[in-house]
Amino acid sequence: MQTLLEYLLPGSCALCKMRSKTSICDGCLQDYMLNTAHRCQQCALPLTALGDKRCGTCLKDTPDFDTTLVAVQYDAPVDSLVLGLKFGAKLNYAGIIAQQLADAILRQSTLSPVLPSLLCPVPLSRGRLANRGFNQALEISRPLSRRLGIPLQADLLWRTKETLQQSSLHPDARHKNIQGAFTVNPVWHTAIHGRHIAVIDDVITTGTTLNEIAKTLKRYGAARVSNFVFARTNRH
C-alpha cells in the first residue's frame, strides 16, 4: 500500500523538484544542507583561519548575543525556501527549514553545549503581520520546538515600534531603525531572569535586529542569548 501511494502521490524535493520520498532529496541534502563552513561562534560569518573562534568584527565590537548557529549559507537554491515561505506563503516550507535547522543545531552542539531553556521567535510589527498574515519566524519555531524538545514562548517579546524593512536600508541606518523596537511581555519580566534563551529567525544579515533583541532580553535579566537562524548571508 505504501509503495502504491508513493507511485500515485509522488513527492518532490523542495529544491531540485525531482521526485523524492523526502522534502529534501539526498543529493540536495549533500550539496546544500550540510553546513561544513568554519564560522564565527558569535555571528556565524565564515572564517578563513581554522584556529579562529570569532571574527574580527565581533572581537572589535562584541554583540550582545552570545552565539549564533545557522544551518546554511543564504545562496541559491536554498534561498528559495526562505522566499517561498516569507513571500509565497508556502507554510509547509517552515517545517523543512525547521528540520534542517534542528539537525544543524544538534550537529553543532559543541559550540553551545547547554541548549537553551526557551525559544523565542523574532516578532513582526502589527502592520507587517496584518499584511503578510503570518510570522515566518513563529512558523519555523513551532516545529523546531517539537524537534528540539525546548518550550516555545511565542509572545515573550513584543514589537512596540513600526520599523522600515531592514533589508531595504543601508547597514549604517539599520541600528537607528531598530533601536528601541522591542520590549519583553510584562508577564515574563521576572521569569526570564538567569535563563538561556534562543531567538529564532529565518535569515541573519548584519545581525542588527538580533542584537537589539539580545540587548532587550539581557536588560530583563537573561543570562545568555543564542540565535538559531536558518541561513546566513555574506557580510555585504
UniProtKB/TrEMBL annotation:
<comment type="similarity">
    <text>Belongs to the ComF/GntX family.</text>
</comment>
<dbReference type="InterPro" id="IPR029057">
    <property type="entry name" value="PRTase-like"/>
</dbReference>
<dbReference type="InterPro" id="IPR051910">
    <property type="entry name" value="ComF/GntX_DNA_util-trans"/>
</dbReference>
<protein>
    <submittedName>
        <fullName>ComF family protein</fullName>
    </submittedName>
</protein>
<feature type="domain" description="Double zinc ribbon">
    <location>
        <begin position="4"/>
        <end position="59"/>
    </location>
</feature>
<feature type="domain" description="Phosphoribosyltransferase">
    <location>
        <begin position="177"/>
        <end position="232"/>
    </location>
</feature>
<dbReference type="InterPro" id="IPR000836">
    <property type="entry name" value="PRTase_dom"/>
</dbReference>
<dbReference type="Pfam" id="PF00156">
    <property type="entry name" value="Pribosyltran"/>
</dbReference>
<dbReference type="InterPro" id="IPR044005">
    <property type="entry name" value="DZR_2"/>
</dbReference>
<dbReference type="Pfam" id="PF18912">
    <property type="entry name" value="DZR_2"/>
</dbReference>
